[in-house]
TrEMBL record:
Reaction(s) the record says it catalyses: 6-hydroxymethyl-7,8-dihydropterin + ATP = (7,8-dihydropterin-6-yl)methyl diphosphate + AMP + H(+); (7,8-dihydropterin-6-yl)methyl diphosphate + 4-aminobenzoate = 7,8-dihydropteroate + diphosphate; 7,8-dihydroneopterin = 6-hydroxymethyl-7,8-dihydropterin + glycolaldehyde
CDD domains to which the protein is assigned, alphabetical: DHPS (cd00739), HPPK (cd00483)
Pfam families: HPPK, Pterin_bind
Cofactor dependence: Mg(2+)
Protein name from the UniProt record: Folic acid synthesis protein FOL1
Domain Pterin-binding, residue spans: 203-464
């Protein structure tokens, strides 16, 4: 991981085959500042899994300035919880062997490295060895260690002699950093990653491309003859992500087969990937079917956008995990046919949405989806009616900062929805441009990282203005 956490290899053998009975939990620091930093960390996690060091959960990734040796690239740091039956020194041997197999060369002390793996904690044990100190001596002083660790175990004690002092306590005691740290969520190498806690970040515009005859506002519009011109207009309008859907989720619409959905979506993905002007944009597939998501990823999609957050297809989370792609999990109840009736929130709208999203995030992580690959969507119009959508926009910042959800990026999709029509008195979805503009501005003010829109040119201008006002 970080420049301070390197462990010197030793010629002594520590018994790589040495194991203890039963699985034990350990916490590993992850870091990189050379090459594709996220790819390096993800490769290291795969290597751990392949060696029976099972990665159970991961923190977000945090981008940080270098320390000590300042003339080097910014670091990406994180942490993971692993399950292993290796003894601490044997675990260290395996981690160092992974670093070596990935081509790490230690040329400068605390200098650049493509991958850095260090043991932070191992159960509640203390280790005092010439090669290994557990708990790691740098934990209490390093924000780039404490922040990811606090996401995993905020209420765990580091020092057994001070069981009352928890990871979160150490983090709270650190002096404010000159530049607040932000999480980093990758989308595609050619697209700026999401920095959900960076005040000056730009809001990404996601263009909706519904390749369906029955979508509520744009069904049947995007035909093969018009599609190329539409795509080019959206790129000129500022879209950096295209969200392609082949199955309408509007209430009362018929469900098509997975094959028909794929037949609608895949040619569009291939078209976007074939155009020189759009080769660098990100592509999202809007589907709740695992088979369609898998086919879309193979065709070139970068994001799997599931309105059900894995609830409508039991294979979705495992498919997402295998793909290694970024995913969007939306809050919804029931299915598109029943969701409008499931709009009771007796414990409060925001607390309930937060609790139910926390459950979906936990299920995603348990399936092997990395936390740094998760985007959330509050689900405007899905199991929420009328005033509930306005309340959600009003209190969106509260939802973003809910304990356990902090640092995750958010997508907001309000475009042309019925609650806008009810407020403005505009019956036709295509005419709800001005009402949509107000909701988009509200979403940016509340902290949205991505806005999902139909009217890309107009909303691109709204986003630029809203960013200029609130993202300064």
């Amino acid at each position: 991981m970080d420049r301070q956490f390197s462990s010197s290899p030793s010629s002594k053998s520590c018994g790589c085959a040495e194991r203890r009975r039963g699985k034990r939990n350990a916490y590993i620091a992850l870091g990189s500042n050379v090459g594709d930093r996220v790819a390096m960390i993800e490769q290291a996690c795969k290597e751990m899994d392949s060696r029976d060091i099972r990665v159970k959960r991961t923190s977000s990734l945090w981008e940080t300035e270098p320390m000590y040796v300042l003339d080097q690239n910014r670091f990406v740091n994180g942490a993971c919880e692993v399950e292993t039956d290796l003894e601490p020194l044997s675990l260290l041997d395996q981690l160092q062997d992974i670093e070596k197999s990935m081509g790490r060369q230690k040329l400068i002390e605390k200098g650049p490295r493509n991958i850095d793996l260090d043991i932070l904690l191992y159960e509640d044990e203390r280790v005092d060895h010439e090669r290994l100190k557990i708990p790691h001596i740098g934990i209490p002083e390093r924000e780039f260690v404490l922040r990811p660790l606090a996401e995993l175990i905020p209420h765990k004690s580091i020092d057994s002699s001070k069981p009352w002092k928890l990871v979160q306590d150490y983090l709270n005691e650190l002096p404010p950093s000159s530049e607040p740290l932000s999480t980093l969520t990758p989308i595609r190498s050619s697209v700026e990653p999401l920095n959900a806690l960076k005040p000056t970040r730009k809001t990404q515009v996601m263009a909706i491309l519904n390749i369906t005859p029955d979508s509520f506002s744009d069904g049947g519009i995007h035909t093969p003859d018009s599609l190329r011109d539409t795509i080019m207009a959206y790129v000129r309008g500022g879209a950096t992500i295209f969200d392609i859907g082949g199955q309408s989720t509007a209430p009362g619409t018929l469900e098509v087969s997975a094959q028909e959905e794929a037949d609608r979506v895949l040619p569009v993905i291939k078209l976007i990937r074939s155009l020189p002007e759009t080769r660098d944009v990100a592509i999202s597939v809007d589907t709740y079917r695992a088979s369609v998501a898998q086919a879309a990823v193979e065709a070139g999609a970068d994001i799997i956008n599931d309105v059900s957050a894995g609830l409508l297809d039991p294979e979705m989370f495992s498919t997402m995990a295998r793909s290694g792609k970024t995913v969007c999990l939306m809050h919804m109840r029931g299915n598109p046919s029943t969701m409008s009736k499931l709009n009771g929130y007796p414990d409060g709208l925001i607390p309930t949405i937060a609790r139910e999203l926390l459950e979906r995030v936990a299920a995603a992580e348990a399936a092997g989806i990395r936390r740094w690959r998760i985007i959330l969507d509050p689900g405007l119009g899905f199991a929420k009616v009328g005033e509930q959508n306005l309340q959600l926009l009003r209190h969106f910042e509260e939802l973003r900062s809910w304990p356990g959800l902090e640092g995750l990026p958010w997508l907001v999709g309000s475009s042309r929805k019925s609650f806008i029509g009810k407020v403005t008195g505009v019956p036709k979805p295509m005419d709800r441009v001005f009402g949509t503009a107000a909701t988009v501005a509200s979403a940016v003010q509340g902290g949205a990282d991505i806005v999902r829109v139909h009217d890309v040119v107009e909303m691109g201008q709204v986003v630029k203005m809203a960013d200029a006002i609130w993202r300064y």
